[in-house]
Structure formats: C-alpha cells, structure tokens
Amino acid sequence: MSLVQAAGAALRAPVGGAPVVGVDVGGTKVMAAEVGPDGTVLRVAHRATPGRRVDVALLEDALTEAVREVAAGRRLAGVGLAAAGFVDAAGERVMFAPHLPWRGQQVRARLAERWQVPVLLDNDANCAARAEAAYGAAVGARDALVVTLGTGIGGAVVLDGELHRGRNGMAGEFGHMQVVPDGRACECGGRGCWEQYSSGNALVRHARAVLAEPGAVGPLLDLAEGDPALVDGPMVTQAARAGDPVALAAFASVGGWLGTGLANLVAALDPEVVVVGGGVSAADELLLEPARHALAASLVGAEDRVVPPVLRAAHGPEAGAVGAASMVRDALGRGLRPRRARRSRRRR
C-alpha cells in the first residue's frame, strides 16, 4: 500500500489551476513554496522554527503563516508537508523529531482541519528524494541514496525506482547512526550520532571552537564582528569561498565525516548515485570534494568497483518542499485525497 493510499481517499482535480504548495519543516526554519507541475518553484515564504522545546501550537502557527503567505488569498489544491522527523507508515503522525516539538501528534489531520485543504505528510528526506528522482540529480537511477544536511542529517533510499520507507515508514534515518561510540551528545538522546560530526550544526560548532582560541583572526571572525558566538553557516560558506583557513578546515571536517558515513551506506546499498541536499549543500564543492575523497578512501574494495558519483541535489535546499508538492500532485493525478480530520466524540 502506498503512502497516498494509506493517507486517504480521493482528491478532486484542482479547480481553475489551484496551486499546490510544499512545506519543508526544518530544525531552524520553515519554507513554504508554490511548486509548478515541472518542479519549478514559483513563490516562497520563510518563517523561523520556534524550536523543539516550545508548544506544538507555536510551530503550527509558523507553518500556517508561511502557507497563507504563499497562498496569497487563493484556494489551494493541496499542501504537502516535508517534516524533519520520523513519520509513521500511514503518513499521519510525526512520531519523533529531534529538532522539533512533535511527539506522536496527528500532524496531517490537525493541519488539514486547520487549513481546510487536503494535506499529505512525509519525512523531509523522502520528499527530497521524490524531487531529485522526478526532476533532479537522480532522474533515471533505479537505485539512489539521498542524504540531506541541514540542522542535522536526513536520508532516503530509492530501490528499483521506488522510495523505500520500511516497516514503520522510518527508513533512511541515517543521521542517528552511531559513528563514534560514546561520542558527542545528540538531540535524539543518543551519543556519537553521524549528524553530530557532519551537519550544519557541526560545521558551525567546528568554526566557533577554533575562533574561540586565543589569537584567532581572519575573514570569518571579521564577518562575525569579532564574536565567535555569532558565526553561522552562511558566514562559514562565505569565508571559505574567500579562502579563510578556519572555514576551509570546518568544511574539510564536515565533508570528511560525510564521506566516511557514505562509505558505510554505499557498502550496504550499492547505489548508482549519491545525492547530497539540504541547506549545507549550498556550499557545493567545498563540501562535496572532501566527501568524495573520504568515500573513496573508506569504501572497502573501492579500487575493484564502480564508486557512485556524489552529486549536489539539483533542487538544493528547496528539494524537500518540491518533493512534498510532487507528492500531492501525484495524489491529484490518482484521484486520491487525504482523509479529513474527524472530530472526536465522547461516549456519555
């Protein structure tokens, strides 16, 4: 049974070309995008993510504001949600999200009722894989691995041309594979998770630690007005492109860990292509070049096999939203629609 079939019954075709919106719900920001039939992003709205320790209503308020801005008063055909968390096999609930407050909530039904439009829900990396398989770097690949680097790491697996979701709908949660026993504490509650060494957070942490040492100087510190605590990901990327050694070292570390983790996944899955997306992928070769070197150096039998190319996602940071919209558009084409939320009734 497909995700769309599990999510519900039939969606009417959009009336008068009503827009389809995809929403990427990340650990630090929300991006809502109107997406055309060819995967083109037509209109975008951003909001900050309130954080994982806030009330769920604040997060859903931010989603609502972003969707309303993109809708601009128009009737929507449907909204797809790409959530940075563990989504159940039915596409109804976010069971756990290390960087968001959802814990088992009926996210799809709550937002469908609030917005009064059909809503579909899946993991953000699964949505990114849909975008790349349909319109991007994985077009034509029967077996592909998609890894997204943002606040943390997400992942998705395409096998025989189909997205593999697993028994619980949670396949591809690579970011929480343990790569360092008893390593850095992770937001998930574990230690030594891959995303603690290769992610946007890891990139910034590395740079800040070096700049906090006595006598630190350079373009990156200048961008942060002399305060290491103000360093963020875009600053590190900007400084690295200008040749700043601290920023380049941060990308070498994060890219190296990326390649080491990819070597384990390639050994297990033997994909045709590896696609890297998420916000950190905007750095392009600053991230991918060290990742390719580490992949080739760590992959067992690399000299006797075809090592898959490591490519940047064609849709970059927009891949999750594009894939979420594609998920809805596919549902429209099948004449399917998510169930609307039912109001609970108490027995008297």
Under CATH, the topology of the largest domain can be stated as Nucleotidyltransferase, domain 5
In total, how many beta strands?
12
Separation, N- and C-terminal Cα atoms = 36 Å
H/E element order:
HEEEHEEEHEHEEEHHHHEHEH
Structural Rg: 20 Å
How many structural units, i.e. domains? 2
Question: Structural class of the secondary structure composition?
Answer: alpha/beta
Per CATH, the architecture of the largest domain is 2-Layer Sandwich
> What CATH first level of the largest domain would be assigned?
Alpha Beta
The CATH superfamily of the largest domain turns out to be: ATPase, nucleotide binding domain
Major sheet details:
5 strands, mixed
Q: pLDDT average, as an integer? A: 89
The shape is globular
Strand order of the largest sheet: 3-2-1-4-7
What is the beta-strand fraction? 15-25%
Proportion in helices: 25-40%
Residue windows where pLDDT falls under 50 for at least 5 positions:
1-16, 338-348
Question: Helical segment tally?
Answer: 10
